[in-house]
Specification:
The protein is mainly alpha-helical. The chain has a domain of 33 residues. Helices cover 50% and strands 0% of the residues. Helix 1 packs antiparallel against helix 2. It starts with a helix and ends in a 7-residue tail after the last helix.
Length: 105
């Protein structure tokens, strides 16, 4: 949703700057604020790329597949909760056989 909002603000910023930018008298404050709005507009595609990269890095998948940002990768770094790993049924089963702990606290 955040990525969609960023993409929508790019279009809205273009419309807003084109409609409300004054063409006759420009003070220093208006000139500065218009420059900052244009700079923000130029940096938004980079922000969209970073948001998309973080989303994919955390395991998100888009509903449509696009190859222009790179091929999709298999995310096997995470273990699923229902995975069956072989281990002791009771993790503290062998503690009684060792005897008392010799470390002093």
């Amino acid at each position: 949703m955040f990525l969609g909002g960023l993409l929508a603000t790019i279009l809205l910023d273009i419309i807003h700057i084109s409609i409300f930018y004054p063409r006759d008298t420009i003070t220093a404050t208006v000139h500065f604020s218009a420059g900052m709005a244009i700079l923000s507009l130029l940096l938004k595609p980079f922000s969209c790329f970073l948001v998309h990269h973080m989303y994919r890095e955390r395991g998100g998948e888009l509903r449509f597949h696009s190859d222009f940002l790179g091929p999709s990768q298999e995310r096997s770094a995470y273990q699923t909760i229902d995975s069956t790993t072989e281990g002791p049924a009771e993790p503290f089963a062998g503690l009684e056989a060792r005897g008392p702990d010799t470390r002093g606290y």
